[in-house]
Structures are given as C-alpha cells and as structure tokens.
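As a warm-up, study this chain.
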Amino acid sequence: MASPPRPQTWTADIGLRIRRLFLLKAVGTTAFTWLFFIGYFHLLRNPSYPVAVMPLTALDHLIPFQPYTLGAYLSLWVYVGIAPGLQLTFRELVVYGLWIGGLCLTGLGLFYFWPTQIPPLTIDVSGYPGFAMLQGVDAAGNACPSMHVAVAIFTALWIEHLLRQARTPIVLRIVNWAWFAAIAYSTLAVKQHVVLDVVAGALLGMAFAFPSLRWRPGKRLRGDSPLVGADIIGHH
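Now compare it with the structure written out below.
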C-alpha cells in the first residue's frame, strides 16, 4: 500500500507532529514530571549519606544574584514538553520517554549515593516575589549534577534534531539554543546551583542525548506517518 505524500511545508510538518497523540503527550509529560519530583523530594528530605557542600569557583563569584532571571529558570517546565510534543509516532514517544527516564533515574541515583548542596546563601531573597516559594520548594540540595541543566540540554539537542527533520527556518533553531542558554544561566543567576553543578548536569544530559539520537525506531510500522521512514534517521 503506497504511503500518502509527506507534508510539503515545515509548518504542516510541525503541525502534524503537534496534533499526533496530543492528549497522551500532555498527560504523559505531566505524570512523568510528577513521578520525578516524588523521588527528587524524597531524596532531598531524606539523604542516605552525609551531604557534601559544593565548592564555589571564580565564575560563581563573578555572577551576581539576578532575580529577573527567575522566569527563565521556571520556563524549563514549559521547555521540557516541546521535544516529546514533537514526536510523531507512539513508538518514537515511548523510546524518547525511556531515554529521558534513564537520564532522570541516573540523576536520582547520584543524589542517593552522593547527596550535595550549594553553600548557604548570603543574600536575603525575602523581598523578591517567588523566591521564598522557590527556596521552600526547590531547596538548595540535590545540587550536583544540576538536573535542571541535564534535562534542558537533553531537550535542546532533541529539539534541534526535530527542527532539522522538519526543515524549519534556522531562526527557530537559534531560539531553541537561546532558550536553553537562558535556562542554564538562570540556574546560576538565581543561585540555585554553582558552576560545577551546571557542568556536571550538561555532561550527564549529553551522555544520554547523543546515544538517544542514534538509537531510535527503525522501519516504520503500518499506520505510522510517512514522515517516519527515511527522515527518522536523516537530517541530523
């Protein structure tokens, strides 16, 4: 049975990806995030080993507290939904979920065996809206590696791949990397992480992202969109 023609424009391609399995993606991403936080907060409040304090570097001293970057920091929870939201088939979505699930479980495993925290803040954040809640909910433990950065770079590399597949204008790819950079920088600017946390998080995220982009579903299944065939490998 001949495959129907693939969308001729990148907007049609992206639109198709967003529409496919939309409810499953929305519910699944939300449920996955909550499951991660259950494990994260349990380890945060019940460390199994003595908590190590991460050292500051010269760069940490150079980056001042910048409360206006809180929006970028919190935007991760929108950003992480983009890559799964652009997966085209159920099989692709499952494989993506397994890889990012492996990333998160590895991070939680590191927090279990090596709990860390950043040095105590010398800044009074009580006068800044949102920071009191941030300090209460996302305390400065489970610091290294920064899972904020690990998940963000995993997402950024996947979005780059998917935008290339869809042949979108380069400006969208630039926006993707700018968004990632803002999230990564914000972890330092809101003083939730130190430089060593960010570096470790980036390395962890890339350790899962690069192999995940090379091992994906191969031949398309009957009923899958024609976009999956050769494009599932190409344009990377």
